[in-house]
Amino acid sequence: MSHATAFPGSPAPARATAAVAARATDLSKVYGRDETRVVALDSVSVEFGKARFTAIMGPSGSGKSTLMHCMAGLDSISGGSARIGDVELASLGDKQLTRLRRDKIGFIFQAFNLLPTLTALENITLPMDIAGRKPDQQWLNNVIETVGLSGRLTHRPAQLSGGQQQRVAVARALAAQPEIIFADEPTGNLDSRSGAEVLGFLRESVRAMDQTVVMVTHDPVAAGYADRVIFLADGRIVEELHEPTADAVLDRMRLFDAKGRTS
């Protein structure tokens, strides 16, 4: 799927003044010591611009999920820097990290993580209810309309399809107006039609609501919805594609697989 006139793999237009939602600088993550030492991230430097949709791809063990978890404050870092806006994550204590994740970050996971006893609307507003915050009603209405849930707000998760449940999860992530949303394989449990709907909603949130989305995926079709794709291998960024198509992403993945077999 292409949604730009640029050729696959062509450089993105210059964005010298583009604001940055999150940034990693020489970011490293190491697990274990001595014989069990594993370098999951090896001095990764990357920026995620505001109001942009970035996909992170790579083979199993490449570090893509680790990068997302470190950038989202879900995992500690071993070296370098990880920032959300101007906030250095390593400088925060546990309570400060919890507050930052609650107030500035939205999460969408492969598992929908909805509470079965709550309605769709109650699931959407739950994080704000826990924080004692009232939602911006106009924004909330806009989110609900964008993800197509207006007629399902009183339904509980068991009364919703998989695609509708993931829409609730997307709306929950958007409702608090976070600075950035991290999505980990958000269409992994969905059929192709429901997956396309959810990806379309994420892309629309970037286009219409100036949301920032960073998505880990293994699916070239899903990556084709993004503005930019970052490829990781062995804990390092090895290539980027701007304004990608699914075919261009698949070609790059095949190239990486071929290199892996001959190395």
Describe this structure in words.
This is ABC transporter ATP-binding protein. Keywords: ATP-binding, Nucleotide-binding, Transport. GO terms for molecular function: ATP binding. It comes from Streptomyces celluloflavus. This protein has a single domain, classed as P-loop containing nucleotide triphosphate hydrolases (Rossmann fold, 3-Layer(aba) Sandwich). The chain is globular. A hairpin with a 2-residue loop joins strand 9 and strand 10. Helices cover about 35% and strands about 25% of the residues. The strands form 2 sheets. A 6-stranded mixed β-sheet has the order 6-7-8-3-9-10, with helices on both faces. It has a 4-stranded antiparallel β-sheet with strand order 2-1-4-5, covered by helices on one side. The chain contains 8 helices and 10 strands. It has about 260 residues and is an alpha/beta fold.
